[in-house]
Amino acid sequence: MIRVTIWNEFLHEKIHKAVSDVYPDGIHAAIAAGIGEADLEIGTATLEQQEHGLSEEALNRTDVLIWWGHMGHEKVEDAIVHRVHQRVLDGMGLIVLHSGHFSKIFKALMGTTCDLKWREADEKERIWTVDPAHPIAAGVPEHFTLEREEMYGEHFDIPAPDELIFVSWFEGGEVFRSGCTFHRGQGKIFYFRPGHESYPTYYDGNVLKIIRNAVRWAAPSGAAKPMRGNHQPLEPIGKR
Amino acid sequence: MIRVTIWNEFLHEKIHKAVSDVYPDGIHAAIAAGIGEADLEIGTATLEQQEHGLSEEALNRTDVLIWWGHMGHEKVEDAIVHRVHQRVLDGMGLIVLHSGHFSKIFKALMGTTCDLKWREADEKERIWTVDPAHPIAAGVPEHFTLEREEMYGEHFDIPAPDELIFVSWFEGGEVFRSGCTFHRGQGKIFYFRPGHESYPTYYDGNVLKIIRNAVRWAAPSGAAKPMRGNHQPLEPIGKR
Amino acid sequence: MIRVTIWNEFLHEKIHKAVSDVYPDGIHAAIAAGIGEADLEIGTATLEQQEHGLSEEALNRTDVLIWWGHMGHEKVEDAIVHRVHQRVLDGMGLIVLHSGHFSKIFKALMGTTCDLKWREADEKERIWTVDPAHPIAAGVPEHFTLEREEMYGEHFDIPAPDELIFVSWFEGGEVFRSGCTFHRGQGKIFYFRPGHESYPTYYDGNVLKIIRNAVRWAAPSGAAKPMRGNHQPLEPIGKR
Amino acid sequence: MIRVTIWNEFLHEKIHKAVSDVYPDGIHAAIAAGIGEADLEIGTATLEQQEHGLSEEALNRTDVLIWWGHMGHEKVEDAIVHRVHQRVLDGMGLIVLHSGHFSKIFKALMGTTCDLKWREADEKERIWTVDPAHPIAAGVPEHFTLEREEMYGEHFDIPAPDELIFVSWFEGGEVFRSGCTFHRGQGKIFYFRPGHESYPTYYDGNVLKIIRNAVRWAAPSGAAKPMRGNHQPLEPIGKR
């Protein structure tokens, strides 16, 4: 059983009718309903909950954290960001969606600005699978189309991903590295581009399949925790 | 259920008593006994069987192929190598062990000489986990020791691995990239260094755990098979 | 001084007026004229020359080999391919252009089919720089457009490149990893997509700049040649 | 001409006679003297200078910054760290030496703890070249030995490096990824392990050669600065 926590800042849905029309119970609820399967135990957390719903206890019982944020990035407390960061390095999986590219936690893990080009123009996005060996691409066609999405364009200022799985084509002439994996410490991270709040992206079957695959991929592997610091020799030194 | 075929050239065991003392039923039998668990359906194949035990039919019902070869590399027919190569590109996992670095199939997949330094001196090897986030390291300590092994030393002439999981230390002063992953086509490949025929390496719990983890990691992911060749436009061209 | 040999199969130009209209002296001559600068000593070689112009002596005085081939891949003798392969592993740089993706030498170095999608439709290609730190991108804008090119689309069946520098957008709806680096042995390889024989791509300033940058990047680095084979211990074994 | 600034916290040398005996004018001075060649314009900066010697102006005229720090990491002001970080993302090269693994700037760029094992035991280190195609390995033997160094051991908690060039063997039984490259934004980063303050490591010819090679490799490439933010379509949208 993989314990998943879906974190959503849950602000647009309360403010903009255009958003709540699409996600009446919030983006987190739509994703939770969409990815649910027998091997996943799914909970949610939001910005305005105490400790943003991310207490030590809540994180300790989370195997994979999904992160959606946008207008509220600056409202996330640094201490909570630090706590999530530490948990990722200790093995918790992290899936960062769409505008989460600018979240404090993603920027802290990447070490770069995570900046990019963007445009809202009811634009077609076509997502191509460039690593068909990867488990996150399981059951995903070689390409699929989202009829209307926000455009994100290169240069996307991230470290070269460990694995590049998906690349997007946009109607207006841009490309984007849309599905990227990273290992950091004992934790696995997947960034996945689609999901603007005003489009029904999180009801798309392929998008949901990819997120579900990513959850299983990102679950902790259970390697031994490395020891750090002053280390006794395992072999004799200077006695030969 | 993952269908595993363990291929062993099975020559040393018939010729050298020192080897058959260690592996009386062959290296393949020792690995089969050692990695067996409920989710694995394990078979074996050897060089001197018809088509080296690797008929089209046998390969088609194999999800992950484990390869051990050494003195018989040149006896493996090119047509069979080509067949295995194609199956890997189509998604079959491949785990290449120890002296398999010089097998025709590994060299064909790597595109390099796969050459290295070596020495037989009853030497201690210590294997360090350098990617503790990786599923192949699940349950593996941060380091473990094989009291006597053949030394393999850098430079190991392979492409930079997609992921480097284990690095070996040798008593005589060398290091080696001992656990390396590669994606090729829809297939996943893991090279794992230990396993000289005259040492009881394939009875070591950590070695067996790593091979078992690798089998699960290398099992086909089931992404859509890419279409190739002449492709019709998905969007209108030059009509704007 | 970097010694460059530009290899072109030089067949289309002799057969198709549409091609010789664009490249009257051959693609190799256009590239040679276009990339010429004071630090480059440039020669050419073609398929129908003796040993395809790639004698041992010719290769030994080549630091970087540029390869353009298409309809004549099968006419390149295996022994010459083997010779070029060996020289790359020994440090010669190799730049593979466009339809060279299907050349024997590129397939042998990659270990994959190198297959892809394609279409000839007088189509717009836009090339995006996704690694602006890379020397091959020096002086290149963040994107530039080729008004008419042949389309190449994903999935491109290559190993994950060591570095991905350029990604192409195509008018008809596809994307492509267009600028990819690989290290193999002591040699450096750059694959660069543009350059269909019927379009004036090799007169484009950005295309020429990228090829020139790649030549400088791919020139041999001069690291020590690794020793192979049986290796004496550098430290005492088993005497502790 | 590449403008190099060598930054050294310059504390141990003032406090510990054992260190000033080895580096009477400071580690920075030894490196400056050791790597000097005609194409390098070398300056130095230290912690106790105003703005740690790293004013906007000083950084703007620096192409490659070399960083050595240890006991004074916490004394480096966050605003200066932020300034250096920004300059790296804008293209300045950064070479982080030895105990600089724990500097604020390296940790901020990596996004991980950068923790490791260590031991001071007058121990032998042997450095192996695992990527002999890399320009940082130019003229470097396939292995070389430092008779006495501090040990650093895996697991080294960094992102998987873009390129792994050197791996160290230690007498006491550990290994370490000692030469690692990273691209971040438009900047190139090289981490190089050797250089404990109490050993004469920065007089070693191979160590100096590697640092000099790294300076040339890390110098800004001069790609176009990517545009960020709201982006106008390059192609018509939704009008087809």
Automatic annotation (TrEMBL), chains A, B, C, D:
<dbReference type="InterPro" id="IPR029062">
    <property type="entry name" value="Class_I_gatase-like"/>
</dbReference>
<keyword id="KW-0614">Plasmid</keyword>
<dbReference type="Pfam" id="PF06283">
    <property type="entry name" value="ThuA"/>
</dbReference>
<protein>
    <submittedName>
        <fullName>Trehalose utilization protein ThuA</fullName>
    </submittedName>
</protein>
<dbReference type="InterPro" id="IPR009381">
    <property type="entry name" value="Trehalose_catabolism_ThuA_prok"/>
</dbReference>
<feature type="domain" description="ThuA-like">
    <location>
        <begin position="3"/>
        <end position="218"/>
    </location>
</feature>
<dbReference type="InterPro" id="IPR029010">
    <property type="entry name" value="ThuA-like"/>
</dbReference>
